Amino acid sequence: MKAWAVDQGESDAVVGFGEGRIRVDRHGARAEKLARLASLGLPVPAGLALSFDAVPQFAASGTAPPIPDDWWPVALRSSPRERDWGGPPAILAIGAGAGRDALAARIGRDAALELEQRSIIGFATRVAGLDPERFEADPRVRCGETLADRVAALKAIYAAEAGHPFPEDPDAQLAAAIGAMARSWGAPSARILRTAKGAPEGAGLGLVVQAMAVGLGPVPSGTGRFQAVDSRTGAPAVEGWFVPNTLGPEARAARERLRLEGGEQSLAATAPEVLDSLVAMSRRAAFGCGDAMAFDFALEAGQIAILDAVPAARGARASIRIAVDLVETGAIGREDALLRIEPRNLVEHLHPAVDPGAVRDVISRGIAASPGAASGPLVFTAEAAQAAAAQDRPGILVRAETSPEDVRGMHAARAVLTIRGGMSSHAAVIARGLGLPCVVGASDLRLDTVARTVTTSDGRIFSEGDLLTIDGTQGEVLAGAPPLLQPSLDPAVLTLLDWADATRSLGVRANADTPAEARVARRFNADGIGLCRTENMFFEGDRVTMMGEMILADTSEERRAALDRLLPMQRADFEELFATMAGLPVTIRLLDPPLHEFLPANEDEMVDLAAAIGLTLDEVRARAKALAEFNPMLGLRGVRLGITIPEIYEMQARAIFEAAIAVNRAAHEPVVPEIMIPLVSANREVEMIKARVDAVAGAVEREQGVRPQYRIGVMVETPRAALRAGDLAASTSFLSFGTNDLTQMTYGLSRDDSGRFMRTYVRYGVFPEDPFHSLDLEGVGELMLIAARRGRSRNPDLTLGLCGEHGGDPASVRFCKLAGFNYVSCSPFRVPIARLAAAQATILSRDTTT
To answer: Which of 13, 134, 469, 841 is most exposed by smallest CB count within 10 Å?
Structure first.
C-alpha cells in the first residue's frame, strides 16, 4: 500500500464529520448534509469527506486516506456540489472480509458472510469492471453448501476473471474504489449528462467514506426512506417505506416494501420505538437544516443509522404548508419562507387541478392561457354554452377564436378551448378575468363548426356533448373526466400572503371589468382596480343593440339619444363597482375597441338589429360596410374614438362622476376614480380628451353641487407614447403600461395569431420566452424604463403602473419593482401570485442595494 499521497497543505482535503470544516463548495452536498446532521446529534455513522481536489490526487496516486480499524467495512458515496448533477452509484461494504470477525459479533456470522459476498461482487463489477453474470450464474455460488463456500467461490471466480487474486487488504480496496469513482465521473458520457443539468465543464467530485451501517442481521434490520410531512399537503404525517434485511440499493429496487405505518406488517407495528425516534430526529433535522428532510436510514438490530438526507418530497400545495410551519417553529425567518415559494405554486390553491395520480388521455396540447382544470360536455357556440348551463351541465366552449360576442357564452362555460390565439388573445384575457381554465392555440385539432365536431391529430372525433377536460395549467386537453383536486386557500396560504403584504412595497391591483370580478379582487386583497375595460359592459342584455343604434346613427343628436339610454346602465355598473371597491383606487379605461366589434357578425343578427332600431337590412349592411377597416386594431379605436365621436367619452365620464358622487355620499371610505385614456400616441390627444372630461365634471358639479374628485391618466400602449412620456406626464397624473398592445406593437406581432408559431420560435431560441407571457426586458422593458425616466423627470409625482397580463408574471413583477413602478395590475385570480411575487421583488431589490 502506498503512503497517503495528497497535498498535506490542503487543510480541508480530508475532513472528518465532526471537525466542522466541511463545505458544499469544497466537499459537495451529501458530505455537507451528513456533517450537519452529525453536528445536530443524529446517528450518522462516522465518516470522512474527500474534497474535489483530493479525489483526483488519490486516484492518480492509487492511495486512500487512513481509516480507523473499527470503521470497517466502509461505504464510498459520491458528493458533487449539486445533487442533481448525479454521480457514480455507491460502492458498499468495502473491506468486509477484513472486518469479518468484528462484524459477525455485531450482526451474526451468517449476515457477516452474506455481506462479504455482496462486497466481492460489488468490487468485482463496480471497480474491476467484471461481468456480473459470471458471478451470478456460477453454480458454486448459487449452490454452495455454506456461505463460507460461496465466499471462497466468488474469490476464485474473481481471480480467474481478473487475472490476479481478490485484494484482501481493505486499504487497497478503498484506493481502487476511489480510482473507479474518479474514472466514472470523468467519463465523456458522465460529463455530457451533468453539463446538460447545468454543471460547469470542470465540476469536481467529492467523496464520502463512511463506516458501513448494515441493514442485515437480527430483527429489526433493513433499510428504508422516511419523512415526517405529507408530500401532498405538507401536514405532519409519516411517509416512506422499509425493506427488512437489505442494503440501500436493493431496498430501492425492491418491489415489495413494508409501510411505515398501518397494518400488522408495518414498521410501526413491529418496532414502534424506531418510528418515534425517526419522527423526533426529523424535527431536530428540520430545525437545524431549515427544511423538512427525508432520511435514508438503516436499521441494524433496531439501531438507527442515518445514511443520507435530502429535502422532503413535496408538491406545490405542500411547499407552502412546510415553509409556514418552519417559520412557526423558528427554523427559518419569514423572508426566507417567502423566497422559497415559487409564486406559480399558488395556482393549485386558487384553481381546481387534475389529480396527479389520474390517468391522462391527452388529445391535444396548446398554450396554457388560464390556469385550473374543468370537465364538461363539448359545446361549440355561446348560445349552446348558455343552454347547457341552464340545464345545470356547464360545458367546454370550443371556438376557432373568441370575440366579444362570445363573452356571455364564456360566462356560462366551465372552460374554454380555442384553435388559434396566444397568451394575450381575447379568449386568454377574458378567461383569466373570469377564472376559467383555458387552452388556446390548440392548432393540432380540426374544428368543424357545421358538424360540431373536433378531430384530433390521431383521427379521434369528439362531438357536441362528449366529455372533455381542459387543463389550463399544463396547456393540455384530455379526453373524459379524470378526478380533480378542488382549490383551497388554507390557513398556511393565507398566512404566507399576510407576510407578503407586510413585506411588499409594490402595489398589486386587479384587472376587473364587472362587479363580480371586483368582488373576487377584493376577496384576494387587491389594492384596487388597475384596469376596468368598459367595453365588456356593453355586451350585456339589450345594451349591444343600443350600441349598434348609436354606431349606425347619422347625426350627433341620434348618437346622444342612444347614449342617453345607455347612461343609466353604465352609471349603475360603476356604482356597484365603486361600492365594492370603496376606499381603493379604481382605474377605468374609456372605450377602446373598434366599433365594428359591437355590430352583428351574421345575417340573422343583422335582421334583428335592423328591426330593433327601425332601419332596413340594406341600410344596416351599408353602414356596417362603411365602418369596415383593413386593420381595425390600428384604426379607429381608443382615443381616436373619443376625438372623432366625442359623445361616447362624454357619456362615460358623466356615468363615472355621477356614480362616484352617489357612492361617496353613502360610503365611509370614498373612491376616487382614475380615468384612463387608451391608445394614446400624442399629447394633443390627451389635452383634447382631458378638456372634454373636465367640462363634463364641471357640468356635473353645477347639477349636483358636488365637485367630482378624479385623476386622469394615459394607457401607454404605443412605442411613441413611451418615448414621449415626458410630454404626457405634463398633462396627466399617472401612466399605466398596457403591455399586451405595447408588446404587440413593439414586436410587430399579432397577439391573437402569434400562438401559431411562438412555440417554434421559443424552441429554436429565436425568443427566449413568449413575450406575451413574460415581459421582454430588452425591448419592451427598455421602452418602459425610458418612459418612466422621462415621465418622472417632468412630473416627479407621476404614478406608474402596469396593467397588461404581465402583471401576474413573477419575473415581470420584479422588473416593475426595480424600475420604480408604484403598482402592477393583473387578472383577479392572479392577484395572490402577484402579491407573493411583489414581496419577493421587495426582498431581492433590498438585497441588491445593500
So the answer is: 134
Do residues 169 and 150 make contact, with C-beta atoms less than 8 angstroms apart? Answer: no
Q: Which domains are seen in the chain, by residue range?
A: 14-211 (no CATH), 222-314 (3.30.470.20), 352-485 (3.50.30.10), 504-535+585-592+648-832 (3.20.20.60)
Given a contact cutoff of 8 angstroms between Cβ atoms, the answer to whether 605 and 596 are in contact is no
C-alpha cell at 757: 408559431
How confident is the model at residue 5, as a pLDDT? 57
Q: Which alpha helices (DSSP H) does 46-99 contain, by range? A: 54-61
- With 0.90 as the threshold, say if the pTM is over it: no
User: Which contacts qualify for 617-621: CB closer than 8 Å, 24 or more apart?
Assistant: 619/552, 620/552
Cα separation, 487 vs 419, whole angstroms: 27
Number of Cβ within a 10 Å radius of residue 199: 19
pLDDT in the model for residue 850: 47
Catalytic residue set? 426, 803
Find cell 469544497 and name the residue.
Answer: 26
Residues of the chain with pLDDT under 70: 1-11, 251, 255, 540-541, 601, 847-850
Q: Which three cell numbers stand for residue 430?
A: 377574458
511: nearest Cα among 788, 826, 41, 81: 826
* DSSP string of 679-734, one letter each residue: S--SHHHHHHHHHHHHHHHHHHHHHHS-PPP-EEEEEE-SHHHHHTHHHHHHH-SE
pLDDT at 825: 97
Cα–Cα distance for residue pair 280/304, rounded to 1 Å:
12
State yes or no: cis peptide before 708, omega within 30 of 0: no
Q: State residue 612's pLDDT score.
A: 77
- pLDDT above 70 covers a percentage of the chain that reads 97
Question: Which grid coordinates are listed for 569?
Answer: 346602465
Q: What is the pLDDT of residue 10?
A: 57
